[in-house]
Amino acid sequence: MCLYVRELSPTEGNKLVRMARNGSNPVSVRRALVVLASAQRMKVPEIARLYHLFEEHVRHTIHAFNEKGFETLQPRYGGGRPRTLTDEEEQASLSWHKSHQRLWDCRLRPGH
Fold first, then answer.
1. Three-state DSSP string of the chain
2. Less Cβ crowding at N or C end of the chain, within 10 Å?
3. What pLDDT tens digit does each residue of the chain (112 aa) get?
4. What is the sign, positive or negative, of the torsion defined by CA atoms of 74, 76, 77, 83?
5. Which of left, alpha, beta for 69 (phi over 0: left; psi -120 to 50: alpha)?
């Protein structure tokens, strides 16, 4: 069984073409190209070979677009490492460092 993107309206098709040609984010551009290729009835393995992607990634992109639309074409960057200090602990640390700043200044100067 072949997996294809849902039927696109002309407006959606034009928006995808604009994203693919003029997009500033490479992640969005590549995802738009995958959706456009699927709309032209290219099979998943062909799309993966054409754009040097894993087939699983192509399938995931098509499924996500079919379910949620254009919002899935934008990258979702992670927030990084979770905070280890609470706001109160951070403020206490900052105030301690500010009150002992002379100590740190002495150690950083050469010859002391």
1. CCCCCCCCCHHHHHHHHHHHHHCCCHHHHHHHHHHHHHHCCCCHHHHHHHHCCCHHHHHHHHHHHHHHHHHHHCCCCCCCCCCCCCHHHHHHHHHHHHHCHHHHHHHHCCCC
2. N
3. 789 999 999 999 999 999 999 988 999 999 999 999 999 999 999 999 999 999 999 999 999 999 999 999 998 888 888 888 888 888 888 888 777 776 666 655 555 5
4. positive
5. left
